[in-house]
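Example protein
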Amino acid sequence: MSVVHKALQIRLPPLPSIKDVIRLYKLRALRELSQNFLLEPRLIDKIVRAAGNIQNNIVCEVGPGPGGITRSIIQQAPRKVILVEKDPRFLPTLELLGDACKDKVDIDIITGDILHTDVAHFIPADVKVGWNDPPPPVNLIGNLPFSVSTILMIRWLEAISRQEGVWSFGRARMTLTFQKEVAERMSAPILHKQRCRLSVMCQNWCNVKYKFDIPGSAFLPKPDVDVGVVTLTPLKQPVIKLPFKLIEKVVRQIFSMRQKYSIRGAQTLFPEDIREEMALKMYNIADLDPVTRPYQITNSEFGRLCEAYKAIITEHPDLENYDYRAPKKKVITENVDEVIM
């Protein structure tokens, strides 16, 4: 007979509801910070459950705001909660939570921008595991502001590729909210209407799972779009085993002309006078049909294109730093007659 172990839960002392907290502290969501408060406890608990068993784990929450998700995290009895909040207006509400569970869960409150905060400094060294081991007891959870979600995800993917920051402790898992369209892009397979650069980048380094939708009506203020919850678990080995910057450059340029033949975007990797020749050489090396559309290319095929690009810039090092977006250099010509005079 099997025995089912029920996860330990922490019961918080009576606290005002999140709605009451927002009213008591006269908090309002700031549009310039892309803030939207999730108030429905059932949906909040569903986000935290999507992270799996976090009992005794180190949990970093990005943008806790008034602390709705934080309460649900604490109730799951983690070892430590690290809160990174940019807006100092929420400090009193988060400190209230910290005081309420000070004898049960260790809480660090960091006032700062997650784009410029190295959370790794606050994670205990003893949770570190090897990269090929099962994921460490470390979770990132967050209701991310729409305005920074994509750039933050790209930065985290680069950190994963280097096994730095949070990922110096192993393959730490993420459970995050995104604008629904962004969540769909992250998980989109080939031929999907949302397949894009973000799809390839996320799926190259992570196992991406689109978990569920949250209606915009569940947030205050109500955003114009619904929200998608996504979990990401770093892969032991990326599909494309090349430097992050090289992969990002190739994928970005190819998707820059998403509806056209993929070779058209690849041509922008090279200077105008040789771009057709070099792009064709790249596709020949990769053994890929130049008229393939970007959203039809698998990650392994992108890998062949990246390897081909690497072979070309190794042969022609001067092409490596070419950026078609850089301003063109002006050629200054002198009037010969004036010079003679």
